[in-house]
Amino acid sequence: MRLPLAILFLLKIVTVHAQLELPSINIKRTVEAIVIDGKGEEEAWKSADVASGFNQYFPFDTSRAEAQTEIRMTYDDNFVYILAKMQEEKEGEYVTPSLRRDFRGSANDGVSIVIDPFQDNINAFMFGINPFGVQREALISNGGSERGSFDLSWDNKWYAETTIAEDHWVAEIAIPFKTLRFREGSDRWNANFYRIDSRYNERSTWTHIPRQFNIFTLAYMGEVRWDAPLKKPGANVSVIPYLSGGYLKNHEEDSDEFTSGVGGDAKVAVTPSLNLDLTFNPDFSQVEVDRQVTNLSRFEIFFPERRQFFLENADLFSNYGFQRSRPFFSRRIGIARDTVEDKTVENQIIYGARLSGKVTDNTRIGVLNMQTSSDDDAGIPSLNFSVLSLQQKVFKRSNVSAFFVNKQNFSESLEDDSVKYNRVFGLDYNLASFDGTWTGKVYYHQSINPYEQGDDYSHGANLNYNHRNYRLGWEHQLVGENFDAQVGFVPRKGFNRINPEVELIFYPAATLMNSHGPEFSYGQTWDDDNGRTDEQLNIGYNFRFRSTANLDVTFTRDYTFLFSDFDPTNTDGIELAEGSDYTYYNYRISFRSNPRRAFWYNVNTNGGEYFNGTRFGVSGNLNFRYQPYGVLALNFNYNRIDLPNPFSDANLFLIGPRIDFTFSRQLFLTTFLQYNNQIDNFNINSRLQWRFKPVSDLFLVYTDNYNTSNFEVKNRAIVLKVTYWLNL
Fold first, then answer.
1. SS3 call for 144
2. Which of 43, 111, 544, 565 is deepest in the core (most CB within 10 A)?
3. Range 681-684 contact pairs with CB under 8 angstroms and sequence separation of 24 or more
């Protein structure tokens, strides 16, 4: 009965609010050709409506912005055009980390356009540009209220130029209708515009947004009113083929090979709001390597998806459940376990298809099917992955979602029927109140396998109340011992967990501090066999400075019961015994400096007791910006673990220098080094990218891996890849 009661409770708290008076802008068709040169001299701009009167979001949200912004819009058969003029009175230099696409961070100057064509306040597109003409685009999901709901990994074709004058800068933008997803015949869209200004140290928005919410929240949107219903933008098919070649040398096995590949993707707009993505023999060699972490937990570490094919409408597939129990995780596709050598290897994807988008104003659909190849020498079978996802909007901003995931084994020599398939289905209800104050989720998922088993479910619920001066949160989760989501991310099974949180926020009148306040969180995990297995009590205080620097101080009491043997250093040392338990106290201090400066840094320190010993750690990054050409950064993580005899001590180093150099807005060089003695690996990854046309690239990628003990080379590879975006 837990699930129905939780759903009823969440439904009951959806409150009704008075309709807010939100701004609007009229957009009229132009018959004049618009030249994207960053000047905005066409006559169409002089007669266009103006969105102005921007409101301050940071450091305060109760006044007009000091640096005002004007937005104008027009359109023709192929593009929607935006002209933005950013007023400036203070002298100084604009801030940009580099000329690389997809900049992010509160210190960067820039203006962003958020577009919600279906006015559902749940999903939106974001297009942004800075004074140097550097572009970025993102997908916003779940109303922009959750962590991870702002995804800059998405990439698409659009055009923009800028000019800088003495007291202002101008951005002129052209977004193809084919890049967007919208309903044919619609005459109104939701939109908002926001600006980050480094000279005034100010963030401002067209629609007023209370500062306890994200600046890209979709709860507060203005309206774009078209002068005529929109037509279908014509045939919308894009083909993105690639060619690749490379050389791999494995020094450990004394083998080498030359590789080559041909394949590609296609994007087909079935309707203006429903898109079909196809891929054949995909190659992801150009994707940047994951940033390594020091793993001191007993469970698998989560790494986000970076492959473009999986990104559009990714929330339809990946946002089910909670972080500790995702029934679908796209990174499971394309990797497999070599059962002969007992290691994880890349598994070639033969083809893939994704149909995703809107079928009605309130209904979204996602269908995915992918086929991987077999490798008999490695004991890897041919597998098919299928996902069906349906999402129905309810109330103003909430939705109900249902899914089905199937992993099918097609091996002809299959002897064990227990691995023939794995299936998971479930239902999620995502709550978002009209004004964003209440957010939450409740879900129930069930796995199915060829063999009968009980206790094969996952259930959870959370509820958050976000007030100007405080935040209240509750979360609970129950994952059965036999819940088996093989295409998901479930690092732990057979547990029950609760996690309440409270945070208070004070806004002083002083100019140094923007806000401060204490926070409290408590988490307890238990199972039927052992009772309480984990417990964590956190008491902290957070400081947010007007300079955008942050300081967080937290004291923690941990309790851990080991239900299996465990080495706290994760270095194959002597293990603590199954059945032992530990209570230990520690602290954590984190400081992030003002990122508007040429040199800025993040430093996190922790120390205190650790299981039956002690631990001291320091991590963070140092950054130097050589504007506008790039950033030299050093990521670091050091842990000193001292345990009593006969257990092993450890000095764990993870050091990652990174050079990000941009010769221009089309030519980038990134070199990333990672020294990690916990896994005995030193990695070099260097990637040269030339964007010779919009969303068309040439990549040259070099990768090297060494042992950290003696710096003997393990393997190295070099790959050349060319992709080309062709509109048919």
1. helix
2. 111
3. 681/292, 681/705, 681/706, 681/707, 681/708, 681/714, 682/706, 682/707, 682/708, 682/711, 683/289, 683/292
Is the Cβ–Cβ distance between 587 and 570 less than 8 Å?
no
Please report, in angstroms and rounded to a whole number, the separation of the first and last CA atoms in the chain.
Answer: 54
CA distance 137 to 88: 25
User: Residue 99's closest CA among 625, 694, 450?
Assistant: 625
Residue 728 and residue 305: Cα distance in Å, rounded? 28
Residue ranges, CATH 2.60.40.1190, the chain = 2-226
Please check whether residue 727 is in contact with residue 238, taking contact to mean a CB–CB distance below 8 angstroms: yes
Mean pLDDT across 64-68: 95
> Model-level pTM?
0.90
Give the rounded distance of the alpha carbon of 397 from its chain centre. 21
Per-position DSSP letters for 432-452, written without gaps between them: E-TTSSEEEEEEEEEEE-SS-
What pLDDT, in 10s, does the model give residues 283-300?
A: 888 887 778 888 888 888
| Full DSSP string of 700-721 | EEEEEEE-TTT--EEEEEEEEE
Residue 623 bridge partners (DSSP):
600, 633
Q: What is the pLDDT of residues 350-406, one digit of tens each?
A: 999 999 999 998 999 999 999 999 888 788 888 999 999 999 999 999 999 999 999
Extract long-range pairs of 541-545: CB within 8 Å, 24+ residues apart.
541/516, 541/517, 542/503, 542/516, 542/517, 542/518, 543/513, 543/516, 544/513, 544/514, 544/515, 544/516, 545/512, 545/513, 545/514, 545/594
Taking Cα atoms as reference points, which of 4, 145, 6 lies closest to residue 476? 6
Would residue 610 be called left, alpha or beta, if left means φ above 0 and alpha means ψ between -120 and 50 degrees? beta
**pLDDT tens digits along 673-699:** 999 999 999 999 999 999 999 889 999
- Do residues 81 and 35 lie in contact, with contact meaning Cβ atoms separated by under 8 Å? no
User: Other C-beta atoms within 10 Å of 553: how many?
Assistant: 15
- Residue among 71, 203, 181, 34 nearest 122 (CA): 181
Cα(663)–Cα(684) distance, integer angstroms: 21
DSSP annotation string for 549-570: -EEEEEEEEEEEE-SS-B-TTS
Amino acid letter, 501 = E
Q: Output 299-304 pairs: Cβ under 8 A, ≥24 positions apart.
A: 299/491, 299/492, 300/489, 300/491, 302/489, 302/491, 303/331, 304/148, 304/153
What secondary structure letter does DSSP report for 296? -
Strand partners of residue 591: 551, 603
Q: How far apart are CA 142 and CA 319, in angstroms?
A: 9
Fold of 2-226: Immunoglobulin-like (2.60.40)
